[in-house]
Every structure is written in structure tokens, then in C-alpha cells.
Description:
The protein has a domain at 38-145: Alpha-Beta Plaits, CATH 3.30.70. The protein contains 5 helices and 6 strands. It has helices spanning 2-14, 18-31, 42-54, 65-76, 111-130, and strands at 32-33, 36-37, 59-62, 88-92, 96-106, 133-145. Strands 3, 4, 5 and 6 form a 4-stranded mixed sheet that branches. A two-stranded antiparallel sheet has the order 1-2. A hairpin with a 3-residue loop joins strand 4 and strand 5. The protein is elongated and about 65 Å long.
Amino acid sequence: MEQATEDLQTTAQGNSSGSETTLQSRRSSELVGDKGKTAIADSVVAKIAGIAAREIPGVHKMGSGGARAFGAIRDRLPVGGEGLSQGIKVEVGQKEAAIDADVVVEYGLSIVDVTQGVRRNVIDRVEGMTGLQVKEVNVYVDDIWTGEEKSDEQPRVS
């Protein structure tokens, strides 16, 4: 992690845009300062990333098949609630984060455009809200939504 921070500082110093260098340096220094440090839980970063991914048009659902099935059951329970971090895995260090997102994309849309939008929005939201430097966002397209919901349930009455 220390080497990655040094790489980030080298990249920032080599950038010709002074304002971007200042912004990157400021974000890193906000989490650890002379008067203490700020610790951000993985679950907070995961929720931010999950919400950010869902903001992109073309993202139908989040999560792999098993996670979506579990989420459907959880949503039916009276104490369930929406799983905002479903489909998101994060690794959070003191100054950096790495994020994996599993998405279901709507059929007919450019997967490349949708995943680039997800990546860009997740980075912007996580960095803007937490001050963490996002090192990578890996987006995995787990399925395509065709407009038809699959239902294994048989109707209870006919």
C-alpha cells in the first residue's frame, strides 16, 4: 500500500495540471492529519459505490445470480430493506480503495459505455465523499436483462 501511495504522489507530481495535483494531495492528507485520523468503514464505501453504480442508465440490477436471489428474499422480509451494497466488494486502506462491482446490463445498450459510466461515477462519488483515492474499479457484467423477469414461482391460485 505504501508503494501505491508513492506511485500516486509521483503521478500527481508528473501531471501538468496544478489544480489536479493539489486536489489529489488534499484528498490523501484529509484522512490522516496532525490532529488525528479518519477511518471509513468498508460498508460505507460499499454503499456509496453501490448507489453510484445504480445511478448509471443501463444498470438494471447489481450482484451475481446468487446474490440477486438472496436479495429478492431479503426484500420480501418485513425487516429486509434495500441492499445498497449488493454486488459490491471493496478493499479499503488508510488512503486508498479498490472496488469490484457485479452488474446486470439492459439488453441493447453498449456494455462498454455502461461499464465505463459505472467506473467513472463510482470513482467520482467515492473520492468526492470519502477523500480516499480509488486505485481501481473492476466491473463484471454478470447478466443481460432482456425485459423479462424470470420467475421460478408457480402462481398460488389459478
